[in-house]
Prior knowledge:
two-stranded parallel sheet; globular; 8 strands; alpha/beta; four-stranded parallel beta sheet; Rossmann fold; single chain
Amino acid sequence: xxxxxxxxxxxxxxxxxxxxxxxxxxxxxxxxxxxxxxxxxxxxxxxxxxxxxxxxxxxxxxxxxxxxxxxxxxxxxxxxxxxxxxxxxxxxxxxxxxxxxxxxxxxxxxxxxxxxxxxxxxxxxxxxxxxxxxxxxxxxxxxxxxxxxxxxxxxxxxxxxxxxxxxxxxxxxxxxxxxxxxxxxxxxxxxxxxxxxxxxxxxxxxxxxxxxxxxxxxxxx
Length: 221
């Protein structure tokens, strides 16, 4: 998604991850592909809830407004409910729910300055009501359900503003996380294909949707 955004002229793209090595590698790849690209790597762990102030300072130093915020970070631990430790559950919820909540909250002043801002939360078919559920994913799936309902709640709170917010509940995508949860399973959708869809939705989806939880899935393991 970052590479797609960086290809488009005029975009300033912030990429946030705790893996700073991969962040800088990504920024270099974007500059190689397009010397005029503006990719700003920000090393940060979304589980560090009390440290968001410094992250937002870095963003404020670069821009006066934000048009798109995609909450794509996620943490999964495939483990039976009885064996999950409190700190493991806490980390899943920090990365998948509380981190995005804090990022949205801190970014609100910048999003409100956009003529048409769009927040896209990435959920999972595992957290989609009525979908098939799997043993060992109770904490992950319930956290993804939480980010989905949060989307509906915030759409109501922001309805008098220029901010729109939607949630994409993804099915099986060929990623490291899928391989961890379902070893040996071959997804029909590649990460590149899904990135293209999400980026296009981030740019256009708010024109037709607000407060919606949309399943995006060819298959669910």
